[in-house]
Amino acid sequence: MTKELHKRHLNSETWVAKGMKVTPAADKIYSSQLAEMGNYNVTMTIKGKQASVYRVGQSPPLRRTVDLEGNRCTCAFMDQHQIPCKHMIAVLSQADSTRQCSRVLVRATWSPATPKRSERHP
């Protein structure tokens, strides 16, 4: 357990030095969703609160509803990963996209949680 905490502390320092906002694993998943964002058409149904999203060229179009106020999408991706799905990212391409990530995945959550001491662990 102590070794694992020390490893997290070292990782956290590396993430801070690199200016990372989310953990590397979260960034990899987010990047894969981000790559899909351009394939979707967004129609705001309630300005600034809700949008309808569908994949361009898919017939019949499968629509997803993104609720910005509730931080929800009708797909299950966000419930499973706590990272914005491609539908949410498509909507957020006009806004701040990292605010939808779970705090557990944001680097700033881990930095204060790990002590800044120079201690060796076996």
Which structural traits does this protein have?
122 residues, Znf_SWIM, alpha+beta, 5 helices, four-stranded antiparallel beta sheet, zinc, zinc ion binding
Concise description?
By secondary structure, this protein is an alpha+beta fold. Helices cover 38% and strands 16% of the residues.
Descriptive overview:
The protein has 122 residues and is of the alpha+beta class. The protein has a domain at 22-105. 38% of the residues lie in helices and 16% in strands. The chain contains 5 helices and 4 strands. It has helices at 2-18, 24-36, 77-81, 86-92, 107-110, and strands at residues 40-46, 50-55, 63-67, 72-73. The protein has a 4-stranded antiparallel sheet with strand order 1-2-3-4. The longest helix has 17 residues, at 2-18. The chain is elongated, with a radius of gyration of 18 Å. The N and C termini lie close together (11 Å). The mean pLDDT is 81. This is SWIM-type domain-containing protein. It comes from Phytophthora sojae (strain P6497) (Soybean stem and root rot agent). InterPro entries: Znf_SWIM (IPR007527). Keywords: Metal-binding, Zinc, Zinc-finger.
